[in-house]
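Input/output pair, single chain:
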Amino acid sequence: MDIHEYQAKEILTEYGVKIADGGLAYSPEDAVQRAREIGGSIWAVKAQIHSGARGKAGGIKLCRSHDDVAKAAEELLGKRLVTHQTGPTGKVCGRLYVEAGTDIAKELYFCLLVDRSSERIVMVGSAQGGMDIEELAQTNPEAITKIYIEPSVGLQDFQARAMAFALGLPVSMINTAVKTINGCYRALRDNDANMLEINPLVVTGKEDLLALDCKMGFDDNALFRRHRIAELRDKTQEDPREMAAADRGLSYVGLDGDIGCMINGAGLAMATMDMIKLAGGEPANFLDVGGGASPERTEKAFRLVLADKNVKAMLVNIFAGINRCDWIAEGVVHAVKKIDMKIPLIVRLSGTNVEEGRRIIAESGLPIITAETLAEAAEKAVLARNEVVAREG
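Output:
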């Protein structure tokens, strides 16, 4: 789960990390009032969406008067911002963060994240902040420093000092940097976050260290014990299909293809998606219905897949181990009759009670295309999809 910049900054301040003065706004009037409360003569009006690279997408406006603040707010509120992280659909801005202008002497990059390959937390830093870390990693990888933290021991002061020097900070700022780095680590650890990125972390003209921007992501599996963090969720920033699936206990990831998938088991789902691509098609989604695919749960899964208007054909691939093929078949027949499907449906069943499951589908009288192997199912799904596209012209 991701949160907004202003929410991440509120968390950081509780751990001693300094930020610029700022306030939340939902209207141009709110934005002007926040600017008056902050004071000064320059402000940044920042769109709050779950994405980086907002500046390149026009989501951050530097203003030098209250009229400029109002104009910027008017332009940004309700705007759909498209970045390389949002994909072509973009994300709509529904709130703004108005922040005091900062005297920036230097921009740095700092990040903490869970590194699954090493089973540790990795601390990443660079003296070249304010740019995409992916771009920097390609153009100048030597500019990036990585320090691995053993979770059972935690961040040590010598590691924080090593990172401070790697960021190119003067000796006079090392203690401040260590305090900031320690605060970031505790914010990550105490809230079950799996990523905390500050880009840029800036040195001001007065040698203060400020988090000018911040992103935090959290482990969904730990939200049951982090009620305060769970309440920060903004559903308007999530894929509506994935949000609907999560609310119904289904594992769903939306993709850009047009062959809908309903499968039990993440491994089988991945293999099915690969087989669809091998057959020349593109999967529209990853959907794992899990082991308890009851008729009601199956119907929910069908409706979720078919809510994507790009879907031209649907493939159901079930391997029944804990479950039973006859139960799955009953659920599929129930769902198809209730939903009145308009696109081709391909069903492949395997495992427990497979013969009974196939009999139920065959005797249902429904135009369901069956397959015995995964390769055959994928090929039939791609063929059916092509026929639909040809008919639509």
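The CA atoms of residues 321 and 352 lie 6 Å apart. Residues 374-392 form the longest helix (19 residues).
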